[in-house]
Write the structure tokens for this entry.
Amino acid sequence: MSVTLQAEEALQEAPGDERPRGASWPRYVALKGGGALISLAMVVVLGFFAFRILPGDPAISMTRGRRVSADQVELLRKQFGLDQPMYSQFWDYVVGIFRGDLGLSYTYNQPVINLIGDRLGPTLLLTGTAAFISIVLGLWLGQRAAWRRGSAFDKTQTGLALVFWSVPTFWLGLILLLVFGGWLQWLPTGGMTTPGGGETGLAYMGDVLRHLALPVVTLVAVVYAQYLMVMRASLLEEMTADYLVTARAKGLREDDVRRKHAVPNALLPTVTLIFLTLGGLIGGAVTVETVFSWPGLGYLTFQALTAPDLPLLQGTFVVFSALVIVMNFFADLLYRVLDPRLKSA
């Protein structure tokens, strides 16, 4: 009788144990989404006040090189709302963000949202190409270096990865620019297309690819190393697992053991790292775009800093930060999907 009662109690408790697990997924998404929204709100506040401490008067910067009177400078301040109290400027800034209005650029006299939209394409082309090459190259070299641990291939690849990982991005870009653009003159030194070229079709695509080569190589050389090192470390941990011994005992070839069993299990930390670094890769393109005069958001941010163009700086800062926050949010969701240990957490 007692056994029957215990069985009934176990059956009654089982659905109760499953319900929290099923309900934990929406709660997890809401928790991570709320954290992302809080981070975005802090970015909005920081984006407004941080750039207000930059030295220089935007009105004077806009009239640099022109003979203007003090009344004209004051009129310019009034036109752009620079004469308003700080709290009033902040309120207009927040309201504008909710309306999709990031303000009017002091330098270009155009809506910031339009400038960002025009420059977003070149940045996505540069960072997307660099990210794809970095991921494929890093994962391929990382898993081969781990499987040949201690070999000349392993030592060479990890050594190069550590060197490139520690090199400043702008310095590497300048070296490549001097060697391949200046000394050898194999590739263009800046821009996205040749000025006055007028190419169309395949000729235009080839011209863009030639201009894209050096910026992409610069980003890939710095970024692929972290994928290689993380993939190598993850695979080294898997190589001592019991299931690999079982796979070998079944007569599987070494390549099949690595490709079908070890690598998929070692991909979890690397896939998460990919999402975490994609947003930062777009933000990190500022130095590369500046060195190679690539007409993207990074170069636009650099130009806004020299003014200083406050609405443009605020707009690019919010966009870059939002991309990082969104990628981190997707990384958290993906990690929960890939790692079954977190599904019941």
User: Anything to note?
Assistant: Residues 1-23 have pLDDT under 50 and may be disordered.
